[in-house]
Protein 1
Amino acid sequence: MRLFLVILLQCLALAHGACVGKSTCEECIRTPGCSWCEQISNFTESSRCQSILENEKMCSTNLTINPISYSKPEINHMFNTTVNGLNQVQLKPQLTKAKLRLGESQKINITFRKLVDYPLDLYYLMDLSQSMHDDLQMLTSVGSTIVPNIRARVTDNVQVAFGSFVDKTILPFATKDPNWLAAACGTSNCQTTFGFHHQLSITPDSNKFQQALNDTRISANIDRPEGGFDALMQIAVCQDVIKWRKESLRVVVLSTDAAFHQALDGALIGLLKPNDMSCHLEKINNESEVYHYTETVAQDYPSIGQLREAFSQSKIQTIFAVHRDVYEVYKDLPKVLPNAVVQYLANDSSNIVNLIGESYNAIRSRFSLTIPTAPPSIDLKYRVLCPDSATWAENTLQCNNVSIPQEVVFQFEIKAKSCPTNKTQVDTITIGSDIIPDVVKIGIEYLCECDCERPLFSDNECSGQGNLKCGLCDCFNGRGGSVCQCETNKTNSELIGQCTDTQPLVSGGPTSLCHERGKCDCGECICEPGFSGKFCECANTGCPSIDGAVCGGSSNGECHHCYDNQTCICNAASGWYQNVGGLCLCNDNLCKAVSTDEQLCAGRGDCNCHSCSCSNSKVWAGTHCDTCVHPSCNKIEGTCGGDVEKCAICVYGTQGTTLCQQECQDIGINFIRLGLLPDCSLCENYNLDAGCMACRQNDEVIFPSKDCNTTDANNCAVKYKITWNKDLNGYYLFVQQSQTEDCPTFDYLVVVLPAVGGVIVLGIIGLIVWKFLKNRWDRREWEKFQSELDKQKWTQGDNPLHERATTRIENPKFYEKEEDKPLYQNM
């Protein structure tokens, strides 16, 4: 792994040329992948720093300075070794020393072995609000058996403590009013509402625990949430009062059936002072062993973050034993409180012993280290290898289900990302746990200096005129140069100092020989192409540019990027000067239409950098204020009719096709088609209607808009408005789109109904005439018939042509008497 890292750093150094130009050994070894050569021959001060592979080829091994990062344990007591009176050592090594070169890292393993189950200090914290009355009765009835049951079923090394809480005694959370308390408690013998009472410190005596329960009475408050966070904070910070054992597993069991108050809830009742995370427990009186929280009505509730910090410092684990109806409120607390557990509590707390046992087993099988804080110069990564896993878990320091005598391996990777200002500085990373008192430390030193900085006299390498220092000559007075070859009254260090600028290129940055942009020759910097200045401090890049042209272009000016100041030096001979952005883009000659013009902007405006600002923009515009934009200068008149009317009719009739657009623009008119012509005087600024949006460009001062009406070839009404557009500096037409009512329409009923009516009338008249003529003809025929009848001399009975329709035949024998014969023989 080490070889891979070295090769990787070397490749990076070669790829980026990071080693080139480093003129001192210290600068060189602070560059990852670089090494320094002390060898004199074939080297200059700028070529001694090379990649490790290059120097292996060019420099003798014993003259190559290439510090190697490493780490090793300094104190490494074995597990279960007695050290300083402590019986268990469960973390090792206890102290590791590391030396780091800039950009290199070291991996340090810390091993935890679980030796024994931890002694248990159990603090039972109970909610004494009225709704917990049944829980208190149950707990009191079995109090004497709780500790023995825990010893029998959980661990025999257990001690207990007891405390209780209600809430802050300020309305609307709670009140000390005895009348309200009597009404709220009914037949229960309630005690006055309080914040937190610590009733029993850590003790192995189960009888004292039973007595504390017997002395406890229920209380009451008004709102639903309780003040359990106040109690938890005091239990965590008042260690002298609680009397936690040093090596015990400290567990607080909070039993409640209600939600919790937290930070800022106190602001609702005027408690603006935040919780100070300090102990404020005092005895209720000199005769009592009960402590009470004195800041109940003075400080706000603690935040979850404050509890996390207090629990971490005091190494306290928390079991939230809550009723089922508030479980959702508490279930996410383990995400922010280290090693916390949330469990269901029976309505009468009858499962408390089983609950404590299950939670204790979960806690004791869990092990974690606190996430350490890395020094500013160190980049820290970590991971863990748990007993039941074959792979590393990244970015975590916790394992579950750890049993005796399993081991957990934690790996910390430390990398130096900068060298401290104090060259002798030693940093320490302290790593501990919220569960055990063991602490391990990692001491870090930095490989940021070269041992060869101590001067050594050399007769040959330094021309007999100086001392050798990391392969460089420190010349005597009167001599200078890389090997003291120059005659001067200054030493080589002074000559190098003449080539070394005291001012860094950027604020807070390093200084170097000729700023690594040239070489020093007897106290004078010979700059590489593209750089200039006494110390090669100026570059011809880095200045403001536009479209890739630095300073606006080489003909406009040159870039002088000296130190952290980028300045364009403009070509004043050609008239160029800087604009507000520092670019050489300003030239008064650009404000003349012809270079020979005597006046700028045609005498109608001011030249601002390279553009004209016309004095009367209502009349004159254009690059050089030589374009008249007033209606009076327009070739067409802004009146109804003429070319304007032709344009409007075209737009109306062809729905604004490209043909009309070209025709209108040829005469200098732009247009817009709208559903209805707007009344611009009624348009508000916030109105997003297309017509009102177009109205905003009108200049009613120069040209009041005109509403016009005409008709097209189809006798359709064409409505349009003539305006002056202040952006286009020209006439602008609003043409109303064709509407149904614009054109005259053909009403078929007007034609059909009269035609049909005429046909019917003519038909009726015809019938009347026919009837009249028919009656006359019939009358005439009748009269003729009657006339002919009158002329006849016979009647119907005498008509010789008439023959009766019947014949009578008589039987002569039928009649016996004469009188019986009929009168007529034939009928």
Protein 2
Amino acid sequence: MGFLTFCVVAVAFTGLVSGAGVLPDSVEAAEGDTVMFTISLPPTQTPFTAITWSFGTKSIITSSAGGNYTSPEFGDRITLFISTGSLELRNVALTDTGEYRVNIIPADGAAITGITTLNIYERVSNVRVTVSSSDLVEFISSVTLSCSASGSSLSFLWLNGSDEVTASDRVSLTDGNLTISTVRRSDQGPFRCQVSNPVSNSSSETAELSISYGPDDVILETSPQIDDYEEGSDVLLSCSADSRPAAHFQWLFNGELLSFTGAQLELVKIQMNQSGNYSCQAFNNKTLRYTTSEPGLISVLKRIMNISVESSSNEPMEGSSVNISCDASGSISIRKWLINGQELKPSENIVFYEQKRVLSFKVLNRTDSGTYVCEISNSINSETVSYSLHVNYGPENVQISGPKEIQEDKTFKLSCFCDSVPTANYTWIKNGTILAQSSEYTKESAASSDSGQYICKATNEITKKTVQASHTVLVTGIDFFFNHIKKSFFILAHLMKPEACGAVEVKPSVNPVTVGQSVTLSLSPPASLNSGSWAVGEALILTWTRLGDQDQVAVYPNHLGRASIDANRALTLSSLSVNDSGVYTMKSTDPELTASVSLIVLEPISNVTLSASDSALIEHTSAAVALCSISSGSSVSLAWFNSSSEVTASDRVRLTEGNSTLTIVKVNRYDRGPFTCSAFNPVSNATSNPVNFTIYYGPDNMNLTLGSHTVGSNVTAVCSVESHPPAQMQWVFKEQLLNTTGSELELYHVTEGQSGSYSCFAFNNETNLSHNVTGYLEIKDAKSGSGQPDRALWFLCLKIWAVVTSLTFSNI
């Protein structure tokens, strides 16, 4: 077949000279225009012998020496330019479309042939755009814009504003139609359709789409913007959202719907019980979507007022313990204790209780005296109060100054001083007789009878301690007798001087002590004490007196049956209660000796319970509150745990009311627990029951698996999402809601018509949030493309045959 074809072509061109470039390959013109077929030949000095123009198989005009012959069909529409062979054709019509041929025979050469194609087009007009739907919803609706126009061989171009619209996974362009699947707000336009052909172009009027979207970007703002608001002030909350049409707003407080609507919520003269999480919910009545803002915490505080300080002892003594309490009315955020302008820190001797409400000194020292400042503050204001701590101690280091020897008739003065707060009371004694009650003793005109030992007793009225010192004075004459007496007196005085009693201290068998237990207060080192007493604070416990070989012991009513002493004067107390805490003092009168110790009795912790205000919470919106309580226990400290990790304060976590209240602001899905509360004091500890929170979250982190499949196969589309409780799921294909619910969509024996965008919508009925994801499913025909090479070869042969036939006919 191919050989025969080429043979025919060779025969057809025999005797002809084809003038390359004699005519252009094609000429385009609009209907009604004038067309000039211009011959491109070099100038010649002699006229052409013959010129013939034809249209298809029809003759248009023949010019030769014998004259011109014009076809009647073209007579009034053509002009032949004999000198160049060019032809003018006027008022062209669509029927003039086709192939034009010129044959020129020069006077001195072979015949020249030129061929061109004339294409006549109808001008573009009446360009219009129509829209399939005027009420569209973002991510749900699809729309088709159709462009129509008058004219021929039309080409269509769509513009969105000044940008050309091109095909994509959401946009398809077919036969002048623009189809947008799952519209976006950016698809509003304005759209124009631009229609053109080789001879003209025209544009439509603009068309804009009305697309309802949102609400998105819901933002809650407060005015004024501060961390905490004083009770009684006014707060304005404003809500905004990106939405078309404009969103409707409603307000929530701690997740509960309020009766207020509108873009603003005004809280007038706000109260403490209005503290909490506020959020606004935006609703679009076209998209039927709800979106809730991030919650905003409104914290209402009372101004700090009526600050006061109180001590557990009005007359604190060195070696005892004391608690200084600081209280105020209002919302207390921070307590500080300061001395000399510096914040007081915990130490071995200084302990804080109840969020620094109580400053406790385990064992007071005289160096602890000073002015202590308690500062209580919140973000609204701060107040301070001072407390002057005077530690009472002594007397100690009693010393006497004065002469040791003086002549008769002279005056001498003895001075007594010691370390003591408050200042000690002094008593001068000689030979059992009180001489004076002041720090100084003066004797005028001394006589020999004034010789002897002078005792100064120093007594502290607060500590009830008495310490003495002695000083010997010798009054002398001028003869040997008195000198001898002087020496004898000093020997006698030396022999009569009492032995000093060493220091003794009290050592408890256990400290602190648990309520109900017993304790023994022993003296170290043991001492032989003939008479004395044990007291707690100012209250006597018992007294003893040794008479011969027997001890007479008297127990006071408050301690009958609970107090006893042994031969070493160690005190044993049984069935102790918290009220037995205090400073225990042993005071001996024979010899004179005093020692004391501070004893603490603590109640053991029991029945630690944990309760939650609301165990069902919404992520990023709700606040979780848990309360820890105990049935009994004293000096208790609390600690919180999430599983095995300790919970500490942060920007989201607040520990208040002495750590008994745990508040988690804007919970997240990892705040589920279990939470426990541990209580402890120096003698016991206990842990509460665990509490778990139910956190509702999602839907989010969606993923859709589709892929590419062949016709006739079975397809399972899987949609995954993070949500609690599990999200309710629906499927959409080409804007149509499918009957399938759940995370899987199963399609059996699929066809090419099932190709397209599939959307999975998830909704959480607790968080009232929704989310969606879209994917493209491609269905291919496994046999597509077979047989195409044969058809292409067949069409090529047809085209060659048509050309050969045309050339052969023109040579006949």
Protein 3
Amino acid sequence: MALLIIFLIILATSQSCHTPDDFVAITSPGHIMIGGLFAIHEKMLSSDDRPRRPQIQKCVGFEISAFLQALAMIHSIEVINNSTLLSGVKLGYEIYDSCTEVTAAVAAALRFLSNFNCSGETVNFQCDYSSYTPRVKAVIGAGYSEISMAVSRMLNLQLMPQVSYESTAEILSDKIRFPSFLRTVPSDFYQTKAMAHLIQQSGWNWIGVITTDDDYGRLALNTFAIQAAANNVCIAFKEVLPAFLSDNTIEVRINQTLEKIVAEAQLLAVLKNVTFTDGRNSFHFDAHGDLNTGYDVVLWKEINGLMTVTKMAEYDLQHDVFVTTSQESKREFGKLKQILSKCSKECSPGQMKKATGSQHMCCYDCVSCPENHYSNQTDMDHCLLCNNETHWAPVRSTTCFEKEVEYLDWDDSLALLLIALSLLGITFVLAIGIIFTRNLNTPVVKSSGGLTVCYVMLICHALNFASTGFFIGEPQDFTCKTRQTLFGVSFTLCVSCILMKSLKILLAFSFDPKLKTFLKCLYRPVPIVLTCTGIQVIICTLWLVLAAPAVEENISLPRVIILECEEGSLLAFGTMLGYIAFLAFVCFLFAFKGRKLPENYNEAKFLTFSMLIYFIAWITFIPVYATTFGKYLPAVEIIVILISNYGILCCTFFPKCYVILCKQKTNTKSAFLQVVYNYSSHSADTLALSHVSLGTIHHVTAITNPSRNDNVTGCPSSNHSLAQVFTHIVREDATKVSKTWHQKRSSSI
């Protein structure tokens, strides 16, 4: 007790240092010496001017808390000495006052490193200190990180263990620069992490920071700023206070000192493996020399003008969680969320932050995510982009939605209508085939080219109607390749048959000898049909081999995926349609040439009309197909195919069916020959008239121009006789020609 009183008097008065022993605060001999560094005074007394002599100045400002820490060290050593823990070995100590100043602490470190049992206070320089025996074996302290860093760099020379009870700077965990430093408090990394976690958990993002102007404060501020930014927390202001304040009521101590009893004094390697308990928790040093302890979260509250500090929770740095010890503290801890500390309102999911003119990132406006973007968390800096190939999102969306795959399906109303029209067309084809089969030997069927040609054309029409089914439903590679090929070949075969029929009609009723000779040479039914169709087969085969149509996902629409057939080659597609158009144009020319043939059996004018329908439909198809987009694009081609097919079917077969069913009297051989005879007679009269008129003109010219010796008075009677002769000649020639053409036309037809 007397020793402690003397110690207290010495520290309180803090005499000036005249000899090295005067610099020691208190010491006790022993077999193993342990050094101590405590900031028992808050500063060194210095003159207004710069120091004039290199000497240690007097310390002032007694610190009771540091003094109690020094007493705790003395008490711990005395407890060990009075126990059987170290039998036959006494621990001694040598405690120095750092005066909260690096200079004084470095002076103490020099004393620690001096040679043991040496008459002089000297530090011998050696290249290897393995066999060197310093004055002390280990050092407890210092409190401030700035002092610990300076002392540790000196103690590193001899790898002297240094255990700090209060230095928390993160840099001290670097074992490359501070290999012999240990501490019984967590690193500032965990302290700042706990603070950032607490702020985030309380829903704050607009805070101020107060720190001290030393290594501890500056390093902690930098670490906290990084972790705060990672949690989207803005530091509105930073206030830096002097490191050492004279007034204890103003000075803010963020961390309360935890008094730990040093149970043993061992070498550095042993200290790193030390594990001890406080009766409830187990403690040990990690690889960085940091103790696995945590922090207390305290609440400063002013009550009746007095500031009270209440423990609210404990921070478990290993699990990064806050642990409340009671229901009351849990309620107090939960009230932190009720405190608003934000520069801007929270942006909800579906929104993102938009920077304002403020320099702080926490001051912002909330704007909605644009289309095809989303945000699923609060206060997101930017919206996330959806995968445009498979997903979409509306404005202010919190998630992406999968795009719906669309195509012209069988249950679509337009598809049902088109299929109904196709089935109706197939029904008409079957009905026409039945009618023609039952009236096989009638003139109408025979004049249509016979049952073989009619069947071929009807089969082509049926295939054209059936090809529309390949345009509906989910596209497959097979359907994509089949639909255009089936339509192209079958429609070409149909037009080839029409071309052959047009040539036959024109040949049968042609009275121009030159044209008749040319048509006879050209008219070869089977080669014409096979050649015209074969060319289209070659075109489609090259198309399928070189650039076949295939299924493609059209993702250009924002909300749907259009499953469609990509034609492979637009050139091949255009060539196929262009070739059909060429054949149809040739048919149109031949049909137009024979449009004035016998009315009851004349196909030419109907074929002309059907070709006009085809041209109008496909000319309209080109711009409509080029501008239509989406799942109804195949419907455009289906409609054009139906129009073309119905146009040819109706114009080619419906008039004949009408005659067969409704005008059976005209569907006889005698009626047929009478119509042909009348047409042939009319055509022959016209042709004979033209020939006779040409010959008579020359004859009349000879009569009306007599010799110069004739009398002009005979002209009136001569004109009357000429008229009678002209009439007779015309009638006679017309009768002959009529009989001749009647015989020829009857036999040819």
Protein 4
Amino acid sequence: MNHQYGQEHHASFTLQAAAFALCLLPGRDVRLTPRPGGCRRRHGLRSGCAHGVAARPSSAPFSRFPAQPDTGTMGKRKTNKFARPQFSPIGQTNNTGGLEEEVAADVFSPAGELLEKLQSVSPDVREFACASISKLVQEKKVIPSFLQKDAIRCLGPMLLDPSVAVRETAAGALRNLSACGGYDVCDEMVKQDVLTPLTALLRECCTGLDTNMANPQKNQVSDKNYIEDVSNEAIHLLWNLCESSSRAVSVFNKEGLLDICILCLRRFNDNIELAISAAYCLQTVTEDNTELLASLVPLALQVLEVVLLSSEDITEHLLLRTLVAGTVWNVKSIVPSSSQADTINAVIRILAETLEKNASQIILTLRQAACGIPKAEAETEMEEEMIDTNENVTPKLEDGTGKIPHQSQAENVTSEDISDFLPTRSEELRHATALLAAQQNALEIIVNMCCSEDPSDDEWEEMSSSDESDNCMTEGSGTLFSPLCLSAEVHSALINYLIPKKVLEKTEFTDSVTVDACMESPSWRHLIEKMKRIQCRALTCLHNLLSVLDVEGLGGPDALYSLSQHLGKLVFSQSEVPKDSEFLEAVTSAIRSLMQIMSSHNLPQQCMSAEQLMILCEAGAQCENTSARVNVVAMMGISGNVIAKEDNTAETLKMMGNFLLQVVTKDSSLVVVGEALDAIIDVFADGKEADKAADEMKLVHTLKSFQPVFKLRIQKEGKGNLTVDQRLVLDNVKINLRRFIAYREALMKK
């Protein structure tokens, strides 16, 4: 989720359902791969703040981008997905008790005094109180003091205050509380029934918007703007709650709030800010929401189609079309089969147009234009921005890896993390921010296109094995995951609109001239972080495309060789391997997929030398991101399996084997340990060089010693810390390990 009281998104016609899915690359025949947890297309970013803090676009990622702690994958590599985060991704169950206990003794908060002012007979005093609360709750340490004073129940009725100004500032205060308070606070807001007054407010706004649209000449502009401004804050609050709480989505469905979002979306020609807010909300609530599909009457689809086919060449409208394209993709199952191909083409055309834009050049041009504003205006803007950047605003954000961070990570945000909350006062900066938001969303939508749906927990339980049973295994060419592929319509559209090429272009970071131009102004510097995020999303998108397209669809062997050189440069162009965890996860995911596809087609591995691979893997093994560690371990397994077939490689294999054994015995994550054992089995499965290296390493003795430790760790840690699919994978690794040890012991006796 990610929008605050300040500022604020899909596209289509019709679509029925033929499930598309993902092409799994060939691999060992007894292993499967759980998908890394919780990547959302918006990456679960929170909504923006009020009073001088502009809404930032939902990223999300991710999230799509349920959100879980990093999980990584083992065995077959599944594609990443940005998925809507669910309530309490960190696993907290104590409502807001934990937050309240965090109140520091030295944190001053006039919570009680301000909440008392909400009962004042003066609307000006009530408005002042709401505005003050809106500003204060941007400070994370202050939030528990407001929760202790029952701020949610005090602010809720203010949404229906007789004063329209109080309604707007109350909606802004609740919006900021939901944005900066975290997922638990959002769920607590839903529990305390804030959606009842919010729904009533939205219905009143809906009536006002209907009146304005029916008789625009009879309404004063000020009245219309008041209604739309209140609607904008209310829609933002609704978006925040639905992004964080499944309860809120249920209320959204039950109360028929879809019609209100569609009505706001229809205002896109008159109020693009309101339309973008509604589009963001629609993209959130339509994801994996079969109950809502029945409410999508032809009129609603018509509105989506009108927006999708609009042609305004302004970045805000580009962002709106991109978001609507995401909504259309979410609801494609209700489009008639006769219109499926046209709808998919329309969606991917919009995404291609968004990615076609040269963000570096456009931002540089906008920055140069912004430098031409009058001096007095520039100085005023700079002073205000410096005041805002000095505010200690610490909303809980996502770590940019597609997963929601653990609480300790979330608390360690810096001023860089809150750049999205700052106001975009200049028109040029607003255009630049909208362009980057559009491109990030486009990449996340493509990531989700290249994903299949995971089996439900019940389905996993049916496949799950008991402790030592071999029943879960499939012999021969069978796998626990059926190899699925993209639908013909999606595959064709991705190729026809050159999506792989456009995604590859986005994996290159922006040029130094644009970076320098942004660095010149404090208000533009946060765009650099956004551009880095787009690079990471593009690498994740590339990983998924590599997983679902065949070699020819990717441009043939020559294109893969060029890609391997490009990815190598991204990692080794500097004196040392980048340590940013988000980048490491994304780039290692792409390299891993490329190595897999080249290995499966017997193409020479040209991503990097064995020495470079060791450098990258050692850097990745130290990364706090579990998925990055899983990736480098898997890369070692793929490369080692290839090298084992060559002559005079025993020493290199020993080096790889020792690295993997270090991971097995020292990594804190069972998922990483399982992947490392899997890689060892791949590297030392066959070949005289592998046999020689294994004997010199005393590999069997080491693995036999670790076997009971591994089994005990699964028993102790498996139930509480792992998902069902991860437990199933670890069961398979345990069985594979036992068989591998027996196989190597038999070889030694010959």
